[in-house]
UniProtKB/TrEMBL annotation:
The keyword Membrane applies. The chain crosses the membrane at residues 7-28, 40-58, 70-90, 96-119. This is Cbb3-type cytochrome c oxidase subunit I. Keywords: Membrane, Transmembrane, Transmembrane helix. The keyword ATP-binding does not apply. It comes from Mesorhizobium caraganae. The lineage of its organism: Bacteria, Pseudomonadati, Pseudomonadota, Alphaproteobacteria, Hyphomicrobiales. InterPro entries: Cyt_c_oxase-like_su1_sf (IPR036927).
Length: 135
């Protein structure tokens, strides 16, 4: 499995654990004011990271490109900045909203990089039909 796939899958599991913990905290406290943050942890952290990992696992030529690792680090940094700040903001701290916005912009940039990866052509194939080595 490509390294970027493994990193996305491992990161997804961490976010799954955090999403479950946030859900349990809300259930135990009876305060569900942070449910949008819980949903974002699960969707952006767990589901989307796992989908990215799956895409790269199915496209090892694209996973071998440097831009794939840039995508991983930028996306993960954006989610790590955005989600805790969103959780804190929803707990009644609106002053942290600029941090949420900054993290969101980083996530958006990473998604655009992923779109570039998806829409970019694969590396050239040799005459035999076997993929040529990645750069």
């Amino acid at each position: 499995m490509p390294k970027v796939s493994e990193l996305f899958f491992k990161t997804a599991i961490v976010f799954l654990i955090l999403g479950i913990a946030a859900g349990l905290q809300m259930a135990i406290s009876g305060d569900h004011s942070a449910f949008p943050a819980h949903a974002h942890i699960n969707l952006l952290g767990w589901v989307t990271s796992a989908i990215f990992g799956g895409y790269y696992a199915l496209n090892p030529q694209k996973a071998a490109r440097r831009i794939a690792m840039i995508h991983y680090w930028l996306y993960t940094a954006g989610v790590v900045i955005m989600l805790p700040a969103l959780y804190v903001m929803l707990q009644g701290n609106p002053a942290i909203e600029p941090v949420v916005a900054g993290g969101s912009l980083i996530v958006a940039a990473a998604v655009l990089i992923f779109a570039f990866v998806v829409f970019s052509p694969e590396t050239a194939r040799s005459v035999s039909g076997v993929p040529s080595p990645s750069r």
